[in-house]
Amino acid sequence: MTFSGLSSLILALGAVQLSNAASIKRATCADGNTVTNAACCVLFPILEDIQTNLFDGGECGEEVHESLRLTFHDAIGFSPSRGGGGADGSLITFSEIETPFHANLGIDEIVEAQKPFVAKHNISAGDFIQFAGAVGVSNCPGAPRLQFFLGRPDAVAPAPDLTVPEPFDSVDSILARFADAGFSPAEVVALLASHTIAAADNVDPTVFTDRTPFDSTPSVFDSQFFVETQLRGTSFPGTAGNQGEVESPLRGEMRLQSDSEVYPRTACEWQSFVNNQSKLQSAFKAAMLKLSLVAQDKSKLVDCSDVIPVPPTLNAAAHFPAGLTKNDVEQACAATPFPALTTDPGPVTAVPPV
Ligand code: HEM
User: Fold this and answer.
1) Residues 6+ apart with CB under 8 A from 11
2) 353, 332 Cβ separation under 8 angstroms
3) What is the pLDDT of residue 206?
4) Which residues contact 160 (CB under 8 A, 6 or more apart)?
5) Which of 201, 325, 340, 342 is 20 to 30 A from 177 (CA-CA)?
6) Bridge partners of 111?
């Protein structure tokens, strides 16, 4: 083919692509919103309802954190050998069986808070849990815009017990449990980015009136969780000797034994998230999509990701909390040095409860 023949072919291909793009029509919903697929229109009233009445007007607060935890506890309820329907809403549908499982301690609060929304709107519990998680995360500055697929059938049976990892489980058994449900160690690290917008209510009974954050910035989706889990632990936020808890580097901060053990096992992957917001977002987004589809048939679901709001951006670099420096890092990744970070000015950081 001559050069001019080749360039006309390229131009023609370009025109075909353009006309395909132009032919993708967006549907206009009754409320004026536009979406790629009209089946997604039903989600806008639910979005508005939960932002107002579940998430306190669009905050990245307690109900968002709990709703994100719930996406995990529902979805991980699947094992190829032991059954369970994964992200099927069984934690709501069979709540009287699943909420008493030891690993689900405290999850009953958000289960009970979400139930009236499921009853009020025409949506399955499995869809609602994942939708609420994705909408909730969109309230957290720095978070990725999570994807959401609609159409999960109702759960037919409760998940078996012991599918949700415990903070006192060995790292071998935690990684084996995730592998059983289809997740690699790198995906586990990506999912644990969720602990950057998280706090514990039930790990230390002496501080149970307060929720104790896992990092110093529990209302924003940043990489501080990955920074602070690499700093030498020096004290407990409450008492010593609680199952599943180890010393943290900051007053008022909680460190789970599981996080402290997954870190050295996955050291360079873990460290790679420090101050790398784009990796933090893309890896979490991909792993959360996979989590939201555990044991579901994606080909039967409708992609309604364009209903999920775009999260606010975050313009803050990772840092050492005031009083701490790179001398406090317990470096486990041998291949790459710890990134250079500045230390916050001021007195030694203490993390307030949330
Ligand atoms: C190794 C696996 C994991 C273990 C052992 C674990 C354990 C825990 C524990 C013990 C708590 C504190 C609960 C409380 O006291 O109220 C917690 C909180 C939380 N977890 Fe995990 N988790 C794991 C993985 C995940 C994953 C994969 C996600 C989500 C994708 C997640 C999301 C959360 C969130 C958002 C909270 C905070 C809840 C709140 O602030 O109310 N966790 N986790």
Assistant:
1) none
2) no
3) 82
4) 77, 79, 82, 83, 84
5) 201
6) none
Model pTM score: 0.94
Write down the pLDDT at residue 208: 57
Average pLDDT, consecutive stretches of 10 residues, N- to C-terminus, the chain (354 residues): 47 43 75 96 98 98 98 98 98 98 98 98 98 99 98 98 98 98 98 98 82 97 98 96 97 97 98 98 99 98 98 96 97 97 94 92
| Active-site residue set | 73
Whole-number Å distance between alpha carbons of 238 and 348? 18
Yes or no: say if 71 and 200 are a contact pair by the CB < 8 Å rule: no
State how far the alpha carbon of 153 is from the alpha carbons of 98, 128, 294, in Å: 19, 11, 13
CA 259 to ligand 1 centroid distance, Å: 10
Confidence (pLDDT) at 15: 42
Choose one of 62, 72, 73, 209 to mutate for the ligand 1 pocket test, by most ligand atoms within 8 angstroms of C-beta. 72
DSSP string over 295-331: T--GGGSEE-GGGSPPPPP-----EEPTT--GGGB--
The pocket around ligand 1, CB under 6 angstroms, is made up of 62, 65-66, 68-69, 72, 106, 165-167, 174, 191-192, 194-195, 198-203, 211, 244, 256, 258
- Atom 5 of ligand 1: nearest residue by CA position: 167
